[in-house]
Amino acid sequence: MEKSQFQNPWFPYLLLLPQMGIIAVFFLWPAAEAIKSSFYLEDPFFGNATFVGLDNYRDALSASDYKRTAWFTAIFTVLVSVLSLALGLMLAVSADRVLRGQSTYKTLLMWVYAIAPPVAGLIGVMLFDQHIGPLVDFVAIFGWEMRVGVNYWDTGLAMIIVSTWKQVPYCFIFFLSGLQSIPTSVKEAAKVDCRSETRRFWSITFPLLAPTTFFLMILNITYAMFETFGTIDLIVKDQPGNSPVTLVYKVYRDGFRGNDLGGSSAQSVILMIIVLLLTIVQFRLIEKRVHYN
Amino acid sequence: MATTELDQTGTTTAARAKPAPSRKSFGGVRIYDHVVLWLGVFLMMGPLVVAFTTSSFDHVLIHRQGMQFGWGGQFAETYSTVLNQQGGFTGEVTGWLMTKNSFILGIGFAVGKIVISMLAAYAIVYFRFPFATAAFWIIFLTLLLPLEVRILPSYEVVQQLGLVNTYTGLIVPLIASATGTFFFRQFFKSIPNELLEAARIDGANAWRFLIDILVPLSKTMMAAIFIIMFVVGWNQYLWPTLMTTDETYFTLVRGIKQVMQSMIGADIPKYNEALAMAMLAMVPPVAIILIFQRMFIKGLVEQEK
Known about the structure:
The complex is a heterodimer of chains A (293) and B (305). Chain A is an all-alpha fold and 293 residues long.
């Protein structure tokens, strides 16, 4: 549908000015700087920068440290995205079916959404603490001596659990609202045609939720890659010696702690490319989705 | 939008009324659902409850006996220490000050984002001008590259502008991403054309149409965005950590890092104070989404469209 519009030679630019100004100064300029300094060695802000071409990229990608971090990021991202999606869906399906107490369940289940990632990280650190952590005591019953902060995979597991915990409410809210917007007529018709509740779910309800699932998957991936920074920072306790970290954390650490501006910028640019690729995939799939509606 | 809302309420009431009789024959299903939900609530709320109860105990006791499930009776002392104790190197930071800074960040971020993105969305939807498409794509680009990815150069830029340790430097760069613009763009597009035609006949110009008609119409939308953005702003961590070296600008969430660092060196870390701080940093965003639950969910789910 064509929207009726105003025509004015300068007013729309005035309206756009604040947003565009902020984007130019705090987005385009830094992004350009990142791309530029990724091709230089030393600090370009204090002179003496040498153009080194793709060296920073080559160094970054060939470092064993980088590969390890990339692997951990991939595993972390997949697990956190899939687990929070699955748990959110499971809870939403049940919450949609219960008649009594639905709003209480909803309130208690969405609570964690509002917690900041570092706050979640701090609580996680306590729960997984060697001395005081009840979860460490709990797994010790099964003979597992969990050493978060010392053992690489124990630390990674704690990060995955805390990050998933933080993201489940988000998925839950979206799935529940998706389930509740399925027309009653469809639900009733499905009930007549198919008596098994499980089969009905997988053959009718779940396909109807596909757009929501897809949308959440993309959001979960972005969450796991970027927004978990606070959680990870708290769990590694500022001393990421042997602890697993994500790529974003490494960009921060190399740039601010290691003072390796070129290398950190090259990693930033690589991350930007990954995000752009993800977005292209997203668009391809959204185009397909349009046909359903 | 109005129609979808009707649909939803219609669906839920009908769904609740109808299948109830048939459910009785599947009594087991309902028990299963309640078990799942109870487990979910246990896993979601359990850690918070333990964190809260532990924060009411003495730190020496926590150190000896682990996290606690009962009531320690030290609640008032611990929380008043965290709120009033002057900490940090300068000895000027209190919990109250950090709370104030968190509110400035949360509200400043939310309001800034609403104003800026509403104006931009208005220009994009209601005006025909040469660079409209280009502007749209530039705004869209910001969605793709979160601040975390370009954190170092962003910091350098803000430093060059002399904005380190200012509220401007803390808030404005965070507003650069365009989530709000898309919310408003979607919403403006759903407003019927007839409204603009009618306003034109009455002689309203572009500015009057925005102020007298669109703003009042967008009130619910603005409130929903405010809630979401307030939580996002309040919960910011990485940017405030870099931007504020001056402790008087610390937010509560930023303070969490400080608390963690003080715990690392200590013989007997002050677990109770750390957890009390976590609780304080949690309360305002949780309160706002629970109080305005319906509006919050509506605004959040709107993103998907």
